[in-house]
Design brief:
Elements lengths: L5 H12 L3 H8 L4 H11 L2 H11 L8 H16 L3 H14 L5 H16 L3 H13 L4 H17 L45 E6 L3 E6 L8 E6 L2 E4 L18 H4 L12 E2 L7 E2 L2 H15 L3 H7 L1 H13 L1 H13 L9 H7 L7 H5 L10 H23 L16 H6 L4 H19 L1 E9 L9 E11 L7 E2 L5 E6 L2 E6 L10 E2 L10 H12 L6 H9 L3 E5 L6 E4 L2 E3 L8 E3 H23 L3 H18 L5 H16 L3 H19 L4 H16 L7
Helix pairs in contact: 1-17, 2-3, 3-17, 3-19, 4-12, 5-6, 5-7, 6-7, 7-8, 7-9, 8-9, 13-19, 14-19, 17-19, 22-23, 22-24, 23-24, 24-25, 25-26
GO molecular function: histone deacetylase binding; methyltransferase activity; zinc ion binding
Keywords: Cytoplasm, Metal-binding, Methyltransferase, Nucleus, S-adenosyl-L-methionine, Transferase, Zinc, Zinc-finger
Subcellular location: Cytoplasm; Nucleus
Length: about 700
């Protein structure tokens, strides 16, 4: 989803192959991104516009009147089966397709209010009743709906429904009725150098590391070091559910579960009045999104789905920053001999200026132009140009193909100096720059979602899911380490960085970009980091592993169980054995085992408990024959065995399996990891259900 649909990628690659040699050379040797963009802009003709338009037709975010009836009827079916959560989601889908101030929308709000009443969300139920009235609730339904409102008020112990103020009742927090996505403010002591950072951090700059942060005092485990709202964030859509080539989808995706602006979990969403895609937790978020970016993005809905999340994030960054700021900084970068206009450590200290979480910091994140393959740069430039052309067509209502890039009217002095002669060029250059930056600087926003392990199970489980892509300028100052000393959590679009262990004075504060020493070998980590982030990691973990010369693998000898060593051909270090086997043979066996374990999970979810236990025990025996005792798949097998036994009420057996799973999770993710916390939570549930209160 980060990149455009495959057909557009193929079209751009074919265009690059057949680009005239002069244009190809001009693009490859361009001295800056404005020149690169202008080459791409010149190539976007009617044919290219038609291709993009055709691809856009495969996706739809338009309001479809027939979909209102479909989703309403599906919601009614779920309501009749008392599947209230599913019914609420389907009524929300119906609302998103309904036109404002119509009977259809009013009835859908009324129906959803009934679901919310049964789910005991009384405050939100009242809000939906108010929405139903605003959109023209039919007289025939008013008495029933108003009776529901009275019952809600009674449940909330509110005696005056016309007062407009809800006194606090037991279990109700009025401040959360209109959630703005703001997490609890932790009141970090002011940092004189950095916004949104603790005073224990200091900005440093060096040639090998660039900008990075160090501790200027001892930091205790668990201390909050950074709390930062995203400069921009984009919820990741599921293109498949929006395809015009398939029937309306009753599945529930993250786009229905989270606010498209603040990324908070939504109980009852409010839709954009003009498209069926954007949904919000409250009017405040809807108004803010419209003012900042959705007023432009709304009419580009299908195009943004086609060009991918990175391109949309780049466009949204430009829209949030505003045209004046974008023009000022893009032109300043082009005319500056140093391609960075953010203050350095020395400049911050000398002037008292702060390194802020603003557009100036965003625009100066490294785009790594020299490291990206030229074909990828062309794809980004080509996509940015096509989007800008469509944006101009929407904005001006006329063909901008004839717009001269040398026009000098309405230009600022900075624009004349740098040669940025029109809004499309400035915006296009900025979008291209941000697309290249996102390859290394995009932050995945992760949340914990409930995961149904086994039907009717007494044990809740959660999984970590990526819901959005975001840009955090201060968080981006943290360099990578394969054994980082911080962890990051998210509440809505706010990132909170905490120390995962004690950090000594003078020690660099680091963040793991993904490859971790507990989950990958040093060679795997080095390969991934070089491919995505263009650097060779020299953290302590990598240095120590290389120095040790250890070539251990995740496999053990099938004959004597000693750990196998080597690269392509693995050998047993046991002198009495010396068994040899090819690594790809074991990888194939592991792949088959993983498939079987995945199949057993599906059987568990279908309530085939006895069959699942038999299969899992067989998998466990096989895994022990050729895998390291600490391999992660063993943890998955133990975890599933615990689920199966728990579903039968065998709490003691479930606890034994889950303790083994917990030990492996701790080895794999660390003693301060969220993953270990999830396992311990499940273990506590099992022990509690089995009346092992002392162990709990």
């Amino acid at each position: 989803m980060e990149h455009p649909v495959q057909e557009w990628q193929n079209y751009a690659y074919n265009k690059w192959l057949h680009l005239p040699s002069d244009d190809k050379n001009k693009f490859s040797t361009a001295s800056d991104l404005t020149e690169s963009f202008m080459v791409c802009w010149a190539q976007i003709q009617q044919e290219e516009e038609d291709v993009l338009e055709r691809l856009c037709c495969d996706l739809s975010v338009k309001k479809e009147p027939r979909a209102v009836l479909f989703y309403k009827q599906e919601g009614n079916k779920r309501f009749g089966r008392k599947q209230y959560t599913a019914a609420a989601a389907l009524y929300s889908k119906a609302i998103s397709h309904a036109s404002p101030h119509t009977e259809e929308m009013a009835i859908c709000f009324a129906n959803r209010s009934a679901v919310l009443f049964h789910l005991a969300h009384y405050s939100v139920c009242i809000e939906d009743i108010e929405h139903a009235q605003e959109h023209g609730l039919p007289e025939r339904l008013k008495s029933k709906v108003l009776q529901r409102q009275s019952e809600c008020l009674e449940r909330l112990k509110i005696s005056d429904p016309s007062g407009g103020v809800f006194p606090k009742a037991e279990g109700v927090d009025p401040s959360k009725l209109h959630n703005t996505g703001k997490p609890e403010v932790l009141h970090l002591k002011s940092n004189t150098q950095l916004t949104n950072a603790a005073c224990s951090l200091q900005l440093h700059t060096s040639s090998p590391k660039g900008r990075h942060l160090k501790a200027i005092e001892e930091i205790k485990q668990g201390e909050v070091l950074i709390q930062e709202d995203a400069f921009v964030s984009v919820l990741i859509p599921d293109r498949n559910t929006l395809s015009t080539k398939r029937n309306w989808d009753t599945g529930i995706t993250n786009c229905e579960l989270y606010c498209h602006h603040c990324l908070e979990r939504v109980i009852a969403s409010l839709p954009c009045p003009y498209c069926s895609f954007a949904k919000y937790c409250c009017q405040h978020c809807m108004d803010t999104a419209w003012r900042q970016y959705h007023c432009t993005e709304c009419s580009l809905g299908e195009a943004l789905l086609t060009v991918g999340v990175f391109c949309q994030t780049a466009l949204r960054t430009v829209l949030v920053a505003g045209s004046n700021k974008v023009s000022e900084l893009i032109c300043r970068i082009r005319t500056s001999s140093v391609q960075d206009v953010t203050p350095s450590q020395q400049e911050v200290s000398a002037s008292g200026a702060k390194y802020s979480s603003d557009y100036e910091a965003v625009v100066n994140l490294l785009p790594h132009v020299e490291h990206h393959k030229v074909e990828f740069r062309f794809l980004c430039g080509w996509t940015a140009a096509a989007l800008c052309k469509k944006l101009c067509l929407n904005k001006l209502g006329e063909d901008v193909g004839a717009l001269s890039l040398s026009e000098k009217h309405n230009m600022s002095e900075d624009e004349r100096k740098c040669g940025c002669s029109s809004e499309p060029v400035v915006f296009g250059t900025a979008i291209l720059r941000h697309m290249l930056q996102l390859h290394c600087n995009a932050q995945a926003v992760m949340v914990l979602q409930e995961e149904q392990e086994v039907p009717y199970s007494s044990v809740e489980s959660q999984k970590s899911s990526r819901i959005a892509t975001a840009v955090f300028p201060i968080l981006s100052l943290l360099n990578h380490s394969c054994d980082a000393n911080t962890n990051v959590s998210f509440q809505g679009r706010c990132a909170t960085v905490r120390a995962s262990r004690s950090i000594q004075k003078g020690e660099e504060v680091t963040h793991c970009y993904g490859p971790h020493k507990l989950r990958m070998s040093v060679r795997e980590r080095q390969k991934l980091l070089k491919a995505q982030y263009f650097f060779t990691c020299q953290c302590d973990a990598c240095t120590q592993e290389f120095a040790s010369g250890d070539t251990s693998t995740d496999f053990c000898c099938p004959k004597c169980s000693s750990p196998l060593k080597g690269e392509d051909e693995l050998h047993c270090p046991n002198a009495a054995c010396e068994h040899r086997i090819r690594k790809d043979q074991l990888l194939l066996q592991l792949q088959h085992l993983e498939h079987t374990v995945s199949t057993t999970r599906e059987k568990l979810q279908s309530n085939h408990i006895a069959e699942s236990i038999t299969m899992l025990k067989s998998c466990l025996s096989e895994a022990k024959e050729f895998l390291s005792p600490n391999h992660k798949i063993l943890g998955e097998i133990y975890d599933q065995l615990a689920q199966a036994e728990a579903s039968k009420g065998n709490w003691k057996a479930a606890g034994v399996h889950l303790r083994r799973s917990t030990r492996l999770v701790e080895l794999q993710y660390g003693s301060s990891s969220l993953e270990l916390g999830h396992e311990l939570f499940k273990l506590a549930q099992i022990l509690f259900n089995g009346d092992y209160f002392q162990d709990v």
